[in-house]
């Protein structure tokens, strides 16, 4: 085969490879080196120029020049194609509307808990937690519940066995704290509680409470009143009034329930749907710690006095945000929860 045929085969081969080449940077560069590199096929033929008989030199030069030009053009157009391909891939349209990320919101109960806790934290209360599965001793006995008190009745309490219950309130944390700490004690105890009640718009089998306890020498009922007064003004608003109504709890003496003036009707009542016409809303129970509770917790009732209070978070959240069914707080309905995004 003479050198002309060899070159022509080479050109055919070049066309074949060109038609099958991937438009990728590495493949293009390899292809360029193979044909146009210093030791590439085309240079090698040019190096053979001296061996070509004189009368064929012109023809050979022409053939090789056209091969070289074609190869150069092919490489150039491959680079162009590569460029276009890359620009297309990298193109980002800044004017397109973005994909909105799914946005969660704080649950109204968490928000209520946090807001209430932070007001008392500012007054120097620290946080204590206790178990949700509690013994009869801490839930009732140490809190001065008489043996036959109706709250121990299976109607209200979920019993695990005859000595263990799901706590019906956060008050057992009072006793647990008094056993661990020496006065002065100033704690806030938030947590989940359970009651075996018929479920309806205002009752659920589980709910939350926040308990407060302050023990020191010479703690008085007026300090309790002031603390709760400051809390109510801060949480519900300066215009909201409060009243202390005598009440009974086994673990406090004297005991009171606190009502606030209805912030929907401004305390007028009439046919207000929130306060049912009374002008008042009950928000918590409180009192001075009963000496019997001190005794069961190892604190000297002759030396120390203290106050305690407890409030239901669901009830307060419902009042504050105008929620008329407690079950909504446990339903995980996004349409309900999303209304609290702005909180
Ligand atoms: N534990 C009571 C309840 O669940 C609420 C309560 C009342 C807590 C008076 C207290 C208190 O600390 O002093 O109904």
Please give the structural blueprint.
Blueprint: H1 3-20, H2 25-36, H3 41-47, H4 54-90, H5 108-122, E1 126-127, E2 133-135, H6 136-139, E3 159-161, E4 164-166, H7 172-180, E5 185-194, E6 206-216, H8 221-236, E7 242-249, E8 252-261, E9 280-289, H9 291-297, E10 305-312, H10 313-321, H11 334-337
Parallel strand pairs: 1-5
Antiparallel strand pairs: 2-4, 3-4, 5-6, 6-10, 7-8, 8-9, 9-10
Helix pairs in contact: 1-4, 2-4, 5-10, 7-9
Bound molecules: 3,4-dihydroxyphenylalanine.
3,4-dihydroxyphenylalanine (DAH) is lined by residues 169, 171, 211, 249, 252, 285-287, 308-310.
What does this structure look like?
This protein is α+β, with helices and mostly antiparallel strands. The chain folds into two domains: 3-88; 108-340, Bira Bifunctional Protein, Domain 2 (BirA Bifunctional Protein, domain 2, 2-Layer Sandwich), CATH 3.30.930.10. Helices cover 40% and strands 20% of the residues. α2 packs antiparallel against α4 and α5 (108-122) packs across α10 (313-321). The radius of gyration is 42 Å and the shape is rod-shaped. It starts with a helix and ends in a 6-residue tail after the last helix.
